[in-house]
Amino acid sequence: MSELSELPNIGKVLEENLLAVGIETPAQLRKAGACEAFRRIRLQRDPGACLHMLYGLQGAVEGIPDRFLSDEKKQELKAFFRSLG
After folding, report:
1. Distance separating alpha carbons of residues 17 and 22, to the nearest angstrom
2. Domain range spanning residue 56?
């Protein structure tokens, strides 16, 4: 287990995905941002990664459970998710 697992929403599978795409610390995740981390996971590890994973990553970046993301942030994330095709 890494420090990533101490963040909200980061379980074993998401932690493994982050480590595999070169994001090894909470600081690296915050620097990359949720969208970039998700894009890397989707391209390199899991082409079927879902919107819920993106929400989880954003919550981890903000330090909150994903259910507390603002509606505005969720709309931004949905637009990004759709843009990936």
Report:
1. 9
2. 3-83
What's the pTM value of the predicted model, to 2 decimals? 0.96
Helix, strand, coil percent content, the chain, rounded in steps of 5: 70, 0, 30
pLDDT at 85: 82
Q: Over the chain, what is the mean pLDDT?
A: 97
Tokens at 84, concatenated:
């990936």
Q: Which residues lie below 8 Å from residue 43, measured CB to CB, with a gap of 6+?
A: none
Residue 43: give its domain's CATH number: 1.10.150.20
When divided into structural domains, the chain yields a total of 1
Give me the percent of the chain exceeding a pLDDT of 90: 96
What gap in Å lies between CA 78 and CA 51, rounded to an integer? 7
